[in-house]
């Protein structure tokens, strides 16, 4: 592609200028290239985000025009924190989700990546096995694990002779769902981390080996620090995934009875029996506030790399 | 997870895709053996749920009820027959195609436009614009549900575009929403990939009088084919798997895509696990085929941009 495609000779008379200045037509094209995608995202992401903030201060069942909204100030937030029973359990479950996701599948994924980064027979096969679940949707994961968790037809009860309804019993169903999530999440982290490890300069490792550092020491003192950007990105992904968690609990029981999550509560307020837009929007704002902290961290990492 | 959130730091070339093993050096012998055994055992544990689903999807419900799941026998194809007809998967598959293909093409096209501008020119607003798209990609989609849902209910569409007459319950809703959400990640990856193209070729194209559009279409696009292929593979699986928007924006069962349609196979009081297994395998089949056929593209798409090369 070293030859350029356009043989229009006229511009050759003023090459310097052509390099700097775009024709009017080109300007229009550049503008359109940016504005069309920009408007789409503005329309379907940023305007709704702002609208959620505005709606969170009102009471509206969604019927009729915007003039039907009764503005109530902080009332919705007040209600959520004080008289909405599923809210605090949902916050707790989201937090448990986060801690669990981090402690088990994330650390396991990192460990697998570190081991599989070595020369090992069958490494490709193991990698494929671990990231195969990543191509499946979380909703589908929920269905597949039903074959283990079902009370009457599940494998777990069959093998252990128990009678637990793993998806139904509010004492255990959160953990059942978390293990199913972990099955998918581990491979995802492994994949990201493996790509990161591959980019570590091998001479670093060699230098550490010459200095007589053992493998564990080499990892924590040499490899881990240079992986900082990847570590942070994995961390942000874990947080955002835990906040967004929805699909699995929705296919199990629409986020009730032990499986309350903020995202599910919000959806219940829109497509459930009662439509409470203001109330749901206040939940949305709470979600956005939490995620904006991590989005900021994420963007800062990205922009630092850009510069 | 919706498009899950992979968005990462800096792009590496898509030509170094699958994480190769071996960069960490060789393990010594006893350790190597232990590691191999542990990995082999773990990978079997990991594959087991899928294998179990496939095996039981071929078994007769009454047989397994009587003899338990640990028995052998009762092989049948009936679950697939029933899932296919009762679950109306033929219809769902067509719906999935109607949504996924236009959404992926539109996403890649729009993302390549923005990516090109970001890579080709150094405007002051470049960084801000990247942030605008990337942050949108990371916002929890549920937080935008209410305004999007209500807006779509208000937007009328002519009958040939949507039989319900509104944006809600139409393929268009899902195509546009998926596109808007995926744009950030694709723009980011593509612009970084495009930045690796030497700037001189644009300068000489400019000298020859090639318009900006020609530079984009005839110069840049052919050069970024590997990245486009990787992203296309990834986006097809993500949008096909998308569950949240399809569930909340489509209430008309005949318009549901595969992933959300699976929900209908489950009775309210009684669930035939073997039938669900067959349905799950049917839903998983397209993405598994894509995955095995284009594994390299899939992996490089995911890791594209996670490391600095």
General description of the model:
The complex is a heterodimer of chains A (307) and B (309). Chain A is mostly helical. Chain A has helices spanning 15-20, 24-55, 75-83, 87-116, 123-131, 138-149, 155-160, 173-198, 202-210, 215-226, 228-244, 247-253, 262-271, 277-306, and strands at residues 58-59, 70-71. In chain A, helix 2 (24-55) crosses helix 14 (277-306) and helix 9 packs antiparallel against helix 10. With 309 residues, chain B is mostly helical. Chain B has helices at residues 29-57, 61-67, 78-86, 89-120, 126-138, 145-154, 171-194, 200-207, 212-223, 225-241, 244-249, 258-261, 273-293, 295-303. In chain B, helix 1 crosses helix 13 and helix 10 packs across helix 14 (295-303). The chains are: A mainly alpha (307), B mainly alpha (309). The interface between A and B is large, with 128 and 132 residues.
Report the uncertain regions of chain A. Answer: 1-19
- From the N-terminal CA to the C-terminal CA of chain B, the straight-line distance is 27 Å
Radius of gyration of chain A: 26 Å
Morphology call of chain B? flat
Mind sketching the topology for me?
The complex is a heterodimer of chains A (307) and B (309).
Chain A: H1 15-20, H2 24-55, E1 58-59, E2 70-71, H3 75-83, H4 87-116, H5 123-131, H6 138-149, H7 155-160, H8 173-198, H9 202-210, H10 215-226, H11 228-244, H12 247-253, H13 262-271, H14 277-306
Antiparallel strand pairs in A: 1-2
Helix pairs in contact in A: 2-14, 3-14, 4-8, 4-11, 5-8, 6-8, 6-12, 9-10, 11-14, 13-14
Chain B: H1 29-57, H2 61-67, H3 78-86, H4 89-120, H5 126-138, H6 145-154, H7 171-194, H8 200-207, H9 212-223, H10 225-241, H11 244-249, H12 258-261, H13 273-293, H14 295-303
Helix pairs in contact in B: 1-13, 3-13, 4-7, 4-10, 5-7, 7-10, 10-14
